[in-house]
Amino acid sequence: MSTELVTMNIGPIHPSTHGVFRMRVTFDGETIIDAEPIIGYLHRGSEKLAEERTYTQIVTLTDRMDYTASMTNNQAYILSVEKLAGIKPAERGVWLRMIAAELQRIAAHSVAIGFLINDLGAWHTPLLYLLREREKILELFEMMCGARITNSYLRPGGVFMDAPDEFWPSLNRFLDEMPERLNDIENLLTDNEIIVSRTQNVAVLNKEDAINASITGPMLRASGVDWDLRHRNPYDFYDKVSFRRPLGTVGDNNDRYLVRLQEIRESLKIIEQCLDLIEPGPIKPEEVPFLVRPGEGDSYVPIEAPKGELGFYLVSDGGISPFRCHVRAPSLMNLTLLRDMVIGYKIADLFVTFGSVDVNMGEVDR
Amino acid sequence: MTKELTGNEIKSAINAKFNDLIISVEHDHLVIKNNKEKLLDFFNSLKKENKFNLLSSVTSVDYMSKFVVVYHLTSIDKNESLIIKIPCGESRKEPSIISVTSVWRGAELQEREIYDLMGIYFHDHPNMKRLLLWENFDGHPLRKDFVS
Which one of A66, A122, A278, B68 has the largest count of C-beta atoms within 10 Å of its C-beta? Predict the structure, then answer.
């Protein structure tokens, strides 16, 4: 039986839209007929602001893009600056930023999984288990650089300070405890009947569509494509560590959840290998000036951020600020197919799908 | 390691019938003519024949004398990447280029963002309107002559 169509606005202020995301959705009863994402509510013009700042100052702007993954934002930006200016980073600095990036990946995936479960209606209890683990990582970051979320830890050539002595035992304790905590979370969630029945075969995304729509990161791997830039195009020292790349088979909401959960375990393994390989030494080459002044040219270095391929396209005219700074934001690209994924499903599946895509509005709008 | 193709390698890889589209071969990219008729065929052949199935990024730069649209393409099968640059809008009045949305869906939101912030119009785009700013916003902020 068809009913009169209803068009409704969801967001921008809504607890399940992970920030200020708005959708104009047309329903036939409970079924979604059309959904149009409307964005821009958090647009701060970061790309324009970057044109008036020095290369070191821009690090603080990158923190505020994907604010659940500041370290990897810093990393993508710094790698692009280093390529543009021909800076060779110090070895210890690179190991430190790899440790920071992998910790950040665990924190970002914890947030993604927690809020996905929240969107499923398990109001806040599972989320708090995951936020508790994230909190430990934020405390580690506080030891490393004094800041919890907007870290600005990386600099061209490495990092701005070495981790203090008390950081290392705390990190080891975290690495010892985390697998046990992950088992708890898996026992609680993975085979849970409600979660399985609500996420399996919902919003299926096949390989070809995912690649064609420039979808990257855990979402692409959940659709079964073995594409991880840490493995396929190793930046920093990712070629010196080994890790597994969890893949999904169906490409539904459940696969996207499982891939993220398994990636947390792989990140823990990477950090352990980093701890074996890191050696004392300078954290940044002496000769890198505070005011970086690259020659004319452009650079783009994509990295595997928690949400997908993140890269900064920098153009230099030889000055102290970039002539153009463009951010290839994975959150924005991953939204491309949201409409196609939710059409035909019920209103309750809309938020679950949106949660499983895992976007961060700070990065979508910049 | 993803192989970043040099300008000469891109030139030898693409179908020879598109050679007249090339303006110049640089060390890490090709500069292509903004040819409305043949550009879509060119991108289609890059995707089908050369297997560049992932459009990593589309962006634009305002050099004052011209606008340049920059395409970063990746081949997941061959693990290669290449860069194409297309200058457009030399007169600064209504710069436009053909949309690649029909080849790669991933261009949809990125081209809207370019239109919004840089003011380059994409022909044949399914939904060519502003993305981040509001509908009656005056001007395009990423242009170098934008006065706030």
Answer: A66
